[in-house]
Amino acid sequence: MAELWDVYDKDRNKTGRTHLRGTPLAAGEYHLVIHVWVRDKQGRLLLTRRAPDKYPFPNCWECTGGSALAGETSEMAALRETREETGIDHTASRRQCLISYTRGDWHGDIWLFDADFTAAEVRLQEGETTDLRLCTKDEVLSLCKSGEFCGYDYIEKLMQIL
């Protein structure tokens, strides 16, 4: 099924246009990307392993994330992506957007969801994720240093906030 994204300008205003995923955005156009860090009651962060055929970062560990669909707010996209990729409905979870930034042709939001869940409740999304683990902040940083984690450039800043 084809995904449509809202098109934003450089100041993060919606332009009123939509864009078909997989086709290049025009110069000065952006879409919205979200990353969601889910923290359990013990303070551990939920990571999933990307499927071996997912580009970029095949087989790497990551937080939940993806692009907002047309009509979605950042928060709506964060809730949808976590439900799709982990099977957990976070509408009752405490959540906050910690960091907003722009890279290339996208605006990004980094969310933290504090949730009451166990690893046994997680349902991986076929074709997207192949494994899960709950990690401390130090374990996440270790995975980054070893090259086993997706190459997000905000990790150290985020771990300081958490």
Question: How does this structure look, described?
Answer:
- The strands form 3 sheets. The chain has a 4-stranded mixed sheet, covered by helices on one side.
- The protein is built from 3 helices and 9 strands.
- The mean pLDDT is 95.
- By secondary structure, it is an alpha+beta fold.
- It starts with a strand and ends with a helix.
- Strand 1 and strand 2 (14-20) form a beta hairpin.
**Low-pLDDT regions:** none
**What is the gyration radius calculated from CA atoms?**
15 Å
Order of helices and strands: EEEEEEHEEEHH
Helix content: 10-25%
Please provide the count of β strands.
Answer: 9
Q: Residue-averaged pLDDT, rounded?
A: 95
CA-CA gap between termini? 36 Å
Give short descriptive properties of this protein.
alpha+beta, Nucleoside Triphosphate Pyrophosphohydrolase, 4-stranded mixed sheet, 3-stranded antiparallel sheet
